[in-house]
Amino acid sequence: MEKANWSSPVAGFILLGLSDDPGLEKIFFVLILLMYLVILLGNGVLILVTILDSRLHTPMYFFLGNLSFLDICYTTSSVPLVLDGFLTPRKTISFSACAVQMFLSFTMGATECVLLGMMAFDRYVAICNPLRYPVVMSKAAYVPMAVSSWAIGGTASVVHTSLTIQLPFCGNNVINHLACEILAVLRLACVDISINVISMGVTNVIFLGVPVLFISVSYVFIIATILRIPSAEGRRKAFSTCSAHFTVVVIFYGTLFFMYRKPKSKDSLGQNKDDLSDKLIPLFYGVVTPMLNPIIYSLRNKDVKSAVRNLMSQKCFTR
């Protein structure tokens, strides 16, 4: 009977959302909608200028364009459903749609982990070995690097999504979350999920531990190289080329580590507090971080600001 309930084609999940207060839900709807529009506009403009402006046809901006496209895909896979949930009394999602959402969100998160590591390597070569930069970071190198980031993230997502959708849920279909997130869905399983927990731990090491270690080592060499630059102006310019990436890394990995390594309380009061933070942290990770990325890269990058101004002036001139 359990297997039949789980495998039913009409089976779905109920999403509890962020709040039961209609007034708060309207406020959250407006805020998240505005942030989503900023994400689409900011990242869309970044993708556009990296394609149209020949001065930005470099490895760093190629990676940045991938990051912007990734942020748009990640938010689009979940935010529209979240917004719809704020307007409908019963927030439901089909089993297949939930599986697709889990796959897309995990793919984008894992890909971004690897992509940020690739971007750190790009900055390391540019600052520590500038003479070899055109050879090491040629188009034949940085395009496969970006493609491999997507392939690795997608492969890991296929594994975890497959392991999750094969679990029996025994009729328990209420997800105490904003969207279908793998950790939230795993809590509904009525069987032992040791394999899922172990595989998630291995994945955390691969996509959190290894990239963070690689990025940290890269920045140790970067900072050491910058400090050896004799002129203050030279040091300032060198720092400016990697400060935006470093800021994005701190925000992204800081949120991820807090979300996946936060201890869980077993008492009822502590559980309620955990449930609220379990919703707010992914909301910050999934909406606020993609919104900040184009702002960070635009404010601290003269090339991007110049490209945007040129794009705007061309549009105005055309009109």
UniProtKB/TrEMBL annotation:
It comes from the Eukaryota. InterPro entries: GPCR_Rhodpsn, GPCR_Rhodpsn_7TM, Olfact_rcpt. Pfam families: 7tm_4. Residues 42-297 form the G-protein coupled receptors family 1 profile domain. It is a multi-pass membrane protein. Keywords: Cell membrane, G-protein coupled receptor, Membrane, Olfaction, Receptor, Sensory transduction, Transducer, Transmembrane, Transmembrane helix. SUPFAM superfamilies: Family A G protein-coupled receptor-like. PANTHER family: OLFACTORY RECEPTOR. This is Olfactory receptor. It comes from Nyctereutes procyonoides (Raccoon dog).
